[in-house]
Amino acid sequence: MASMLHYFNFGSKASTTKGAEVKPTPVRALPASWYTAQEMYELERRAIFSRRWLFITHSSRLKEAGDWLRYEVAGFDFVINRDRQGNINAFHNVCRHRAYPVIEEEGCGNKKIIACRYHGWSYGLNGKLAKAPGYQELDGFDKEKNGLFRIHVKVDVNGFIWVNMDAKEVPEVPWEEHFEDVDKQARYKENGINFEEYEFDHTYQMEGDYNWKILADNFNECYHCPTTHADIPAFLNLDSFDSDVKDGHIQHHCKSTPEQIQKGLNTASTYYFPNSSMTVTKHWMMVQKFLPKGPNRSTMAYEIWRHKDAKEEDFKLINDMYARVMGEDKVLCNNAQKNLNRGVFVNGELHPKYEKAPLFFQSTCREVVTEHFDREKKEGREIWPARQQLPNDAKVSAKDEEICSGLACGAQKEVLAW
C-alpha cells in the first residue's frame, strides 16, 4: 500500500519555488469524437497510416527465400517477404491487373513465386511481373511498369522491419525524423540484450470493440496499473516508473529491484508511433501492434520470441503475466469505448506527470492529423499518400479520377466544412 500511495504522490510534499507552492495543471485529452467518428478514422488512414513509418516485426521471421508474412493495418493489406538475394521487400497485396489479392492465405508461409489466382498474373519474389497471359501480344504493354505496388522498407540495426506506404519514390517523411537511434538504446547493451539470440515462438491476437487510440492511451501509462493489474509489480517497479518522450517514440523505464533482475523480469519497452511497441527481457520478447479495423474496432496482435537459452519456467513466467495484463487491458478498453459511444462524455483531464506518455501520443496524433487536414482543405481534395501513381500516358484514367474525386470531394466538403 505504501508503494501505491507513493506512486500516486499522496502524502508527499509539493515542490516549491521561493517558498511558494507550484502545482502542475491537468491537460485536456482528445475529444470523444476522435475515437468514434468514421470520418476521423478515414482521415487517420490518410494522414497517419499511409504516410508514417510503421514498426512491424523482426526479420528473423523471414529466414529463407520465399518466406512471407501478411498483415492488415488500418485497411491496408500488405505482404513482407524475403527474395532470392536475401532482401526484405514489402508489397501491397494487390494484383496490378484487376486488384485481386496475390496472397489469399492468412499469416505466414513460403512461395517461390507470387501468383494471382484470378487471371494467372504472376510475380517474382522481388515484385516484378513474371507472366501476364496474352499480354505479350499487345503493343505498348511494359512488364517493367506492372510489378506489384512496392512499399518502402527499412531494417534497423537490431533486425526489426519497418514499412512506409507513401507511394512516392522517396517517402515524404524520413525514418530518421522520428526514430533516429531508437534502435541504439544504451539500455540494450547495459542489459546484455542481443536480438539475434531470440527465436520466434508464437503469435496470438484479441479482437476488441474499441478505437485503436484507446489501446495506445492505455498502454502508454501506468496510472491505472496499481488498481487493475495484479501482475505488474512483479516486473515493473512502480515507484520508479517513468517515460521519456522523443520525436515519434516513447521509452518506458523503471529501476528494477534486485529480485526482478535476478529473475530476468526487468523490461525495456518502447512504443513506436503510431501503433506498435516492443518489450524485451532477458528471457522473452514481444512485438505488439494495435491494428485499426474501423473507428470502434481493433485487433491487438502479439508476436512472441524466447531467448535461445531461456528455461521453460523463466519464459512462461513473464509470458503468462503479460498475457494476463493484455487480457485485462482489453476489458478496460471495451468499457471505455462503450461510454464514448453513448455521446455523453467529451473529454477528461490527464495528469501531466503520470499520463505524460498518452499526452505525448495524443499531441502527436493531433499534430499529424491537423497538418494533413489543413493540406486537404487547401487543395480541396482528399490526399492519399499510398495511392497508386498513374503514369503520364494514363490520360483517360486521370480524367476518370478527376470526375469521381470531384463528386466525392463535394460530399466531403460538407462533412469536414471545407
Structure description:
This protein has 418 residues and is α+β, with helices and mostly antiparallel strands. The chain has eleven helices and 21 strands. It has a domain at 48-94 and 149-360: Naphthalene 1,2-dioxygenase Alpha Subunit, Chain A, domain 1, CATH 3.90.380. A seven-stranded antiparallel beta sheet has the order 4-13-12-7-6-5-8, with no helix packed on it. The protein has a seven-stranded antiparallel beta sheet with strand order 14-20-19-18-17-16-15. A three-stranded antiparallel beta sheet has the order 9-10-11, with no helix packed on it. The termini are far apart. Mean pLDDT is 89; it is low at 1-17. It is an enzyme of class 1 (oxidoreductase).
Blueprint (SSEs and pairs):
Elements: H1 2-7, E1 16-17, E2 20-21, E3 27-28, H2 38-49, E4 54-58, E5 67-73, E6 76-82, E7 88-92, E8 108-110, E9 114-115, E10 122-123, E11 129-131, E12 150-155, E13 160-164, H3 176-179, H4 186-190, E14 198-208, H5 212-219, H6 225-228, H7 232-235, E15 242-246, E16 249-253, H8 258-262, E17 268-272, E18 276-280, E19 284-294, E20 297-307, H9 312-341, E21 349-350, H10 356-379, H11 395-416
Short synopsis of the structure:
The chain has helices spanning 2-7, 38-49, 176-179, 186-190, 212-219, 225-228, 232-235, 258-262, 312-341, 356-379, 395-416; strands at 16-17, 20-21, 27-28, 54-58, 67-73, 76-82, 88-92, 108-110, 114-115, 122-123, 129-131, 150-155, 160-164, 198-208, 242-246, 249-253, 268-272, 276-280, 284-294, 297-307, 349-350.
